[in-house]
């Protein structure tokens, strides 16, 4: 996507937008933006085709939600907001231009909301949502009352957006379409840089160059934070330091500015000792497992330290970190089977998540229900995705979720499942959404861990898995009739669409 489509952040404020309409308002990013506008007292409407969980909260805040896409939805509207998932020939986009309305990409509307605040922008190939959530909670614990918009919901807060009274605005900066280049951060955090979104960038070199361009937009009075353990982050730090920019690093590497020592991860959580400038900042503990979670939290500790906030606030906030929905989210237990949901779809984040879930499973088996996200990624990273899925004991694979993409014969999950290094009996492709809960209930045994993983729609499947397992327990066996009855075929078909 050409960055010329986006207008750099300027003096436009949220209040300048008038009556705001968001196309596809149910998605996590769009619903968070809608919530932010509503809590600022702005009139908001939106259109959707599916009853996403976030919509009830938007209605409660006074938002008008249209469950169809119609030209009449724009009556009385001043500004129309769209995401990169919305095609330019969408009927509401066409109607907005015909009426001469202001049309903004989500990132442009978000930039308007950030006017007058010091922006903390979190970017990276993966780990953005969790890191943004951790930074937000640390700033809240320190009493700064930041505004925030996150690409997920902090479990305890139940929201991915908030209009605060403080000077900081924490935002997850999306690199997928280069739209993060419109922001002008006071603090830039870059968790890692790996090959992804190559449909936009072509190759890793261009992706790394664009992350460097993003970092250079950081206020000279602010600072840039990168991970010393990540090769892409290390190369970026070296480049920017050679240009005289303020860069601070974190990690297990001996030369990291914020050094993590004695890191240990168990099913109960992760802990490490933090040190900087030759003195100890104490022990950091998180109630969620995974070494990658420890690394994400380190960037929040470093942010607090560099802002002169009490490190004790970081320790307290991270010690109570509840996790983020769709990021290692525990959905429940049924018939002795523990069910999680995880957003990971890039092979690196998939590997980290599945290794952590292995710790949780202990002596039980790990069953993965995976829906790949985007045909181009599934094709370009097929070997790496297949290797990550090979960590599982059992795999239930759904078709690729790729709205707007045309799948050629033999492409997508048909090719992916052949590449997964599991025996034929350990893996299965289900071409019907309704069949997935039944298949899991037939395979899972008490003590196993099941995780739904991948594209956004699969987040709706976890509750159906629990229903199917509960039905199995009631039936006393994996009775297909009982299992089928536990699943709502109409709801499942809608979710898969």
User: Structural class per helix/strand content?
Assistant: alpha/beta
Secondary structure tally: strands:
21
- Rg measurement, Å: 22 Å
Distance between the termini: 25 Å
Mean pLDDT comes to 85
Helix amount: 25-40%
CATH H level, superfamily name of the largest domain: Mur-like, catalytic domain
Large-scale geometry? globular
Q: What is the number of helices?
A: 18
Write down the domain tally. 3
Q: Work out the strand percent.
A: 15-25%
Runs with pLDDT <50, length 5+?
154-158, 478-497
In this structure, how is the largest beta sheet organized? 10 strands, mixed
Would you identify the CATH architecture of the largest domain?
3-Layer(aba) Sandwich
CATH fold-level name of the largest domain: UDP-N-acetylmuramoyl-L-alanine:D-glutamate ligase
User: What CATH first level of the largest domain would be assigned?
Assistant: Alpha Beta
Taking strands numbered 1, 2, ... along the chain, how are they ordered across the largest sheet? 8-7-9-6-10-11-12-13-14-15
Fold blueprint:
Layout: E1 20-23, H1 28-39, E2 44-47, H2 54-60, E3 64-66, E4 79-82, H3 91-99, E5 102-105, H4 106-113, E6 118-123, H5 128-141, E7 147-154, E8 159-162, E9 168-172, E10 187-190, H6 198-201, H7 204-216, E11 223-227, H8 231-242, E12 247-251, E13 258-266, E14 269-276, E15 279-286, H9 291-306, H10 311-319, E16 329-334, E17 337-342, H11 347-361, E18 366-371, H12 375-380, H13 382-389, E19 394-397, H14 413-419, E20 427-429, H15 435-443, E21 449-454, H16 462-475, H17 480-486, H18 489-496
Parallel strand pairs: 1-2, 1-4, 2-3, 4-5, 6-9, 6-10, 7-9, 10-11, 11-12, 12-13, 17-21, 18-19, 18-21, 19-20
Antiparallel strand pairs: 7-8, 13-14, 14-15, 16-17
Helix pairs in contact: 1-2, 1-4, 5-9, 5-10, 7-8, 9-10, 11-13, 13-14, 15-16, 16-17
